[in-house]
Amino acid sequence: MTSAPPHVPSLSLPVPEGLKTVGRVTADDPLICARNVNVYYGDKHAIREVSIDIARNQVLAMIGPSGCGKSTFLRCINRMNDTIEGARVTGAIVLDGRDIHERKQDVVQLRARVGMVFQKPNPFPKTIYENVAYGPRIHGLAADRGELDEIVHTSLQRAGLWEEVKDRLGNPGTSLSGGQQQRLCIARTIAVNPEVILMDEPCSALDPIATARIEDLIDELSASYAIVIVTHSMQQAARVSQRTAYFHLGDLIEVGETDRIFTNPRHKLTEDYITGRFG
Amino acid sequence: MSSRTAAQTQALVQKSLRRRYWAERRFRAYGLAAVLFGILFVFFLIGTIVARGYPAFRQAYLTLDIHYDAAVIDPEGTRSPDTVAGANYNTLVRNSLRQLFPDVQERADVRQLSQLVSNSAAHQLQARVREHPELIGRHEKRRFLAGADVDQLLKGSIDRAAPQESRVLNDRQIAWADALRERADLKLEFNTGLLLNGDSREPEQAGVGGAVLGSVFTLLVTLLLSFPIGVAAAVYLEEFARRNRWTDVIEVNINNLAAVPSIVFGLLGLAVFLNFFGLPRSAPLVGGLVLTLLTLPTIIIASRAALKGVPPSIREAALGIGASRLQMVAHHVLPLAMPGMLTGTIIGMARALGETAPLLMIGMVAFIVDRPQGITDPATVLPVQIYLWADSPERAFIERTSAAIMVLLVFLIVMNGLAVILRRRFERRW
Q1: Structure pTM?
Q2: Which residue range(s) make up the domain with B46?
């Protein structure tokens, strides 16, 4: 399950001039390059001039106080903002050398490549099996029932849920506990075999034990996928990510190696936030 | 504030507490009173209808020994179908009655005697002989509908003590009926005709069968048109259409349409379906079309509310793994919204079932004896039938009116029961 076709050269776009973000926004092996991204909700300018690379096989954590635009930026990456009435996105988000806002870019195809896990576990009100099988089925990834069973099996296994649910695949997905539901949602996402997984505060509705399991899972999954996670917990960002981006009131303030951000923040706002002065 | 001691605060809370509990008790009493009041009215309503209507489910039948007299049916012995069909079968009935009461000789008396039997008897005999010409010359015991007045007499609706002039039956007729009753030739039995027959000017022959069929056909047309159109419109407006001035205008107009008096839809149907498109008058097809217009706003509004009730997280989940808009709607949103949509549809259909005014406009108020065989045959519907019967002066129609209301209520209960079953089947646990 390698993430990208090897023949596509990964090219990093030049960093725009006059960028206010502190730290290195580019990555060595970028899969996605966002440049000068702005989002407007009606008259509200939700995020301003965000430029950042997302690397393969790495976890990028996005932190910041509530309403800072980190979730908004996350939802740009698979164009979920399209579904919000009055939302407008400008700038470039380039995946494998192609802007995702291009006319030729099919949004359904994009979302098959860029999967998403939401804040609240949201399994379909269907069986566990159907939850995982739904994506492969609509995308035609399985030729027959056997192959579909195989995909369901491996996806649940990789999401660390197989052992718990293998005897009750016919039960409704909603009958699981919150942590199990979230892992089911992750299994559902990876069943489509995406290249990027976006996670919007995936543990905020879970207890600490379930959170720890998800964090372990994120760690394992980062071997195969580029992962972008929005989190309110700085400890979580420190635990699971290799790079961290700090957002503040719609601006991307600082980007850097996670270790460096938490030990030696360069921007005053970043420092204030991680030392708990606001947020 | 801070100067108050804890005990003082407690005392104040205590005081307000009493007031709050009292308010709550009062409110609950109001609610309970309202519910009881409602139940009382429903019981009163249903009670009166049942009390008035249940006698109609029994009907007086008279058994007569009929002599298929060749001299009456076919005096020349040709046995040609025309002669047989054209014979005077009333004579057979009359002769049979005169055999029972040989002392009745006067022409006027004989006529009074034959009023004991419904005039459908002659038609029945005609049909019988047409089918079995070999019966001519033989005797046979046949059961006929008694006349409506005799029927009322048996049910005790005619006051025997009243002076003869103010009764529909005179003393002799009552004596005859009593004699027949004693011989067990005249008795009350379950009235199948009420449920199967079409309308008739003679109350004893009138039934709701035609109206029930008309209602079924009309509602079938309504359901087949309004459910798919309503759901599709709701899905489009809720899930696909962008919010702009046009959708606002449409939304306002749908809400307005739901409040338009139904007779206006009837006039519209008359102008458009009958006069412009030239569809058949009095037909369930047109009735269904008009009622579709009437129920569409209800169904669209209810369906949109049901769609709005589907949590957005389900939509995001589906879109997030790359479902197209249509797949999201068809696979996830619609199944969850279906119970609500069905509820709305049933409310709309229940309203359509009880609707009278628009159907008057398109001619479904016509007096139609035959049962409709399809959606283009002239027909009437249950509420219109009730309206027609309620207008008739005969005593026997009063109980039939109530009986028709009972049939309508049963129809409604069956429909609602069906809706509950369907909804259960579609309902999913979260």
Answers
A1: 0.82
A2: 6-54
Residues of chain A in contact with residue B314, where contact means CB-CB under 8 angstroms, are 122, 124-125
CA–CA dist A191, A163 (Å, integer): 17
pLDDT of residue A185 exceeding 50: yes
Cβ A237 vs Cβ A247: under 8 Å = no
Of the partner residues B322, B327, B331, the one whose CB lies closest to the CB of residue A112: B322
Among candidate residues B14, B35, B54, the one where a domain is terminated: B54
Q: Give chain B's domain count.
A: 3
pLDDT score at B430? 44
Q: What is the DSSP string of A169-230?
A: TTSBGGGS-HHHHHHHHHHHHHTT--SEEEEESTTTTS-HHHHHHHHHHHHHHTTTSEEEEE
Residue B203, domain member (yes or no): no
- Contact (CB<8Å) B321/A108: no
Mean pLDDT of A37-42: 91
Banded model confidence at residue A83, pLDDT cuts 50, 70, 90? confident
Report chain A residues whose CB lies below 8 A from the CB of B313: 118, 120, 122
Domain with A193 in it: what CATH number? 3.40.50.300
Residue B44 and residue B66 share a domain: no
315-354 in chain B: CB under 8 A from chain A: 315-324, 327, 331-332, 336
Task: Report DSSP letters for B53-106, one per residue.
Answer: HGGGGEEEEEEEEEE--HHHH-TT----HHHHHHS-HHHHHHHHHHHHSTT--S
What span, in angstroms and rounded, lies between the C-alpha atoms of B94 and B113? 8
- Cross-chain residue pair A120–B317, CB shorter than 8 Å: no
Predicted confidence at residue A279, as pLDDT, reads 53
In a domain, A22, yes or no: no
Contact B429 A172 (CB under 8 A): yes
State the residue range of the domain holding A260.
Answer: 30-274
Q: How many domains does chain A have?
A: 1
Q: Judge: A123–B317 Cβ closer than 8 Å, yes or no.
A: yes
- Give the span between the Cα atoms of B416 and B399, in whole angstroms: 26
- Residues with Cβ within 8 Å of residue B123, at least 6 apart in sequence: B89
Q: Which chain B residues have a beta carbon less than 8 Å from that of A128?
A: none
B429 → chain A, closest CA residue: A125
Higher local confidence (pLDDT), A210 or B230: B230
Nearest to A174 by CA among B318, B336, B314, B430: B430
pLDDT at B137: 85
For residues B120 and B253, state if they share a domain.
Answer: no
Q: Do A78 and B320 touch (CB under 8 A)?
A: yes
State whether residue A27 is helix, strand or coil.
coil
- Looking at B54, B69, B87, which one is the last position of a domain? B54
Low pLDDT (below 70) residues in chain B = 1-2, 428-430
